[in-house]
Every structure is written in structure tokens, then in C-alpha cells.
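ASSEMBLY PREDICTION REQUEST
Request ID: AP-0331
Submitted by: J.K., bench scientist
Number of chains: two
Total residues: 552
Priority: normal
Notes: Please return the full assembly, not individual chains.
Input sequences:
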Amino acid sequence: MSRRELAVGSATTIAVTGIGMTEMSRRSGRSVQAQACEAARAACADAGVSPGEVDSVIPLGGYLTTEDLIAGIGLPDSVYDATPGPGGNAPVASVRLAEVMIAGGAARHVLAVVAKNGASEARIAERVTALPGQEFRRQLERPQGWTSPAEWYAMLCRRHMTEHGTTKDHLAAVALAAYDFAQSNPRAMMYGRPLTRAMYDASPMIAEPYQLYDCCQETDGAVAVLLSAADAVTRPERAVPVLGAATARPQSPDDLSARENWDLIGLHTAAPIAFERAGVGPEDMSAAMVYDCFTFELIHQLEAAGFCPPNEGGPFVASGAIARGGSLPVNTHGGLLAEGHMSGMGHLVEAVRQLRGEAGDNQLESPHHIAVTGWGDWGDGSLVVLGGVGEGRAA
Amino acid sequence: MSTSSQVPATIGASQERTFDPAHPDFAPYWAGCVEERLLVPVCEDGHAFWPPRPTCSRCYRPTARWVETRGRGSLYSWTVVHRTRNREFAAAVPYVVGMITLADLPGIRMVGHVEADRSLLVEGLELDVVFSETRHGVRLPRWRPRSAPWRGERAHA
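STATUS: Completed
Returned structure:
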């Protein structure tokens, strides 16, 4: 348990009560606001809560404002808004933020919404210019030809290969598992587009060791979740309790050159805190939804969260553990690699679907606990442990 | 600051330029590049650190001066970039970017464009800084394998 954090959020003060999701596409032909309103309204309806009852809102994705949601779906004028740090860690970190707001008495229903035209308008290369540490990017990295997330994280992957023996076979196992799950998820952008090892090997090189299929989708769409105080749940048969949540940054959080140990990321700090709050450990999870912007980053986080021993993430994924029928199915929706990139909010939604028994052809048999990780920026990390419907207590 | 050279006034003319040699936290670095010297900030407590920040990343005391590194290092990690949206490098693909550990300033690593054939890439490859390229009127540090020939540029060895 972190010495500096308040002891807020032990099991169970809040629950995910509603989820909403638009189509994932490359060219939505719709505004960010239109998609956000659709997903947000769906999340409220799913929870049986009217938008006028939402006390707090967390608008995410970089192009969505609180005003869009007040004007668009009728959030109250008095709605309180806040956002966690930028980047892909924000959606899972927003669960922790909601927990703090609810535990502090500032809110009973918190709406978190990711919305973006991430394929047809502001693509990843543009959005990362809003991340911390821009002066290092501008002054020291772009002039050397080091520009995009694929190029940054390729360097982390290469170091892990050098130091711990991770191989392209391991990276391929991650991509193949994701595409396999996507073949039975009709919402996935890669639904109907199965991946073979031969296709993986033949795909264009992007930034060695990363080829095309090591890289995630870029996506237009919106995803929303409603998080509610345990005593404000109106449809308990659908409420998925948040058992523990935490978020942390790595040492040298906005720059890789000064990071002493590249193995260590924010998730190394966050995961033990979240598991301790939940009163369970990584070995108790029925599945995990792991932020998979690139194949190695999934391996990296499996190690950081304690799903496998340190430095053994490669052999772990190659064993089939994360694939369909494995001991720890990971990203049963296809993840960022094959379902679509909603900055990780899709991972949270998939965990809720699984725990409600609504995951369609990819439904796991009686899952009881699922961990969801976030990754962003240069290694910010978060982890949320969700429990089974009806688990936990009213506050 | 250990150099008095001014950065040429011509820079800033291009919208392509991403760097800003006038930025107060980086100006001594860029002024050093004009003289083909690779400069690193040192705090009031004598710690050399990287990247440049207003305060030391180890003890948080302010930057007090800048020291020249000999610019010898070894390859810690790397990538070979095949596709990039960085227009300055679009014609250069495939090219190598490395993370380079400095030999004379322990604990400091720098990101550098590595002018080396990819067949040479291996952890620990010894590299030297060269100021082989001029962009927007500024000499930029690049890195070459120590044993490799170089063409007419001054290496800091």
C-alpha cells in the first residue's frame, strides 16, 4: 500500500453501472461530439440513470469537452469535471479518479467518456504532441529522427530482447491471439480479417522490431462508462463492482533516456496497490484486459502486473496462456490490436461484458475477477480489479 | 555556460524546424552544437544529468553550469525506422536511431541518429559523436561506430 495515498477505495465503494459504445471504424463520417453523445447516452440508459443525475464527468480523448456533454445529452449545469493525466492511461486511471470523487462525497454518478476520430482526423502522430515532455521531443528526439510511439516503444522492446531474450515469436503470439479473439467479436475492426503467422511475418516493417501487425489500430468511435456509488446502484443485477484501482507514473515519467531501469513502469507501482485494495492477487484473475498499443507492451505489462515472473513475459505468451482457452485469456475483444483503439476504455467495457455474461461468442465460463490495465505516455500505468456482479457490499 | 557562441540568426526560417535553440533550458546545448561540442548540464551539487531540465533529476538543485562530454558512448538500444511521418527524415528511411550510454558521464544516455549499417547493430557497439549534418543552420550531433571511416567531418575523440 502506498504510504502517501489515502486509504480510499477498498472493496467496494463503487461499481461500473453502465457501458456504451459506438461502432469502431476508420471513417465514422460523424463528429467526435455525435459519437460521444451516443456512447454516453447508452451508458446512462444501461445503468438506468438519467443524464441529469450525473454529478461528475471525465471527458477524454483530447477533443471532447464537458460542454459538449452538457449541451449534447443534458448533463446538469453544475456537473463537476476532472481529467487524469493525458494519454492511454487516462481511461483506467479515471476509475480511480471516480472512486476518489465518490468516496469524497463529491459525486454519486461519474461519467467517463472517450471519443475521437482517431483514424479519419487526429491520428496518433498528432495526438502525441499533446503529451508531457514535448520539449524533449522537439529539441532532442525529432531532430535525431525519433518521432512516433512505434519508434519509441520499439526501443523498449529491443532492449527487452537484448536483456531478457524476448523474440519475434513472442511478439507474434500476442498479435495472433488478439486477431483470433477479434474473429468472434463482430464489433472488432479486424472482424472477418484473420491473421496468420505468414501474414505477420510478411507484413511491412514499421520500426524494427515492429512490423505492421505489432501495432494497434487507429480508430474513430466513442466509449463511455458510468461509475456509481455502491448505494446509488439502480440495477444491481448489472452492476460490476470495482474492487481496487490505482495509477502511477514511472521514474523519469516524460523521458526514456534518464530512466535507470527500463523494465520498471508505472504499473509496477500501481498493480500491487490495486490488488491489495481488492484483497486478491494476479493469480485470482479469470482474465485480464491489458493495454496493447504494441505487442511487446502487453508482454511488458503482464510482467509488471505480476501475471508471470519478471522477464518471462515472452515465454508466457508463447505458451498460449493468453490465447483462447489459455490459463489467463487476455483481451477477449481483440484489444487495441484488433478491436480498435479507444485508448483502453474498450478494455474496461469488455471486462464488464465478461463479468455480466454478455461477451457473446468470446464469453468466458463464469469469470469472477478481471484485471484491466492502462498504459500511456512513456509508461504511466494503472490497474483496476473488477469483481463479479453482485459481489461486494453497499457502502 | 562554457561557450559564448551565438546560434546563427538564420535558423527559425523554416517551419519544418522542430527545435528551438532559444529555449532557456536548451540554449547552452544548441550553442555548444554550433561549436561542435556536446554539452551536458551540471547542477549546483555537481551532478551531470540528462535531458536538460531547470533542476537536477537526481537532487533537484538548479542547473549551475554545462560540461563538455567527449562524446564517446555505447549502444544501449535501437530501432531501425522504415516508415516515418517526420518529414525531415522521410527520404532517409531505413535509418537507425539509438539510445547511447555515454562513457565519460556515468548514468547518462542520449537519443541519437546512428550513421551505421544495420548489420553492425549490437548492444554495446562503441559510437562516437560527429557533427556531420547541418539543418536550419545548426550542426546536429550524430553518432558513428568508432571504427568506421568518416568523411571529412571532425569527430570529438
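REVIEWER COMMENTS: The interface with chain B takes residues 125, 135-148, 151, 154-156, 158-159, 162, 204-210, 252, 255-258, 260, 262 of chain A (CB under 8 Å).
SIGN-OFF: pending second reviewer
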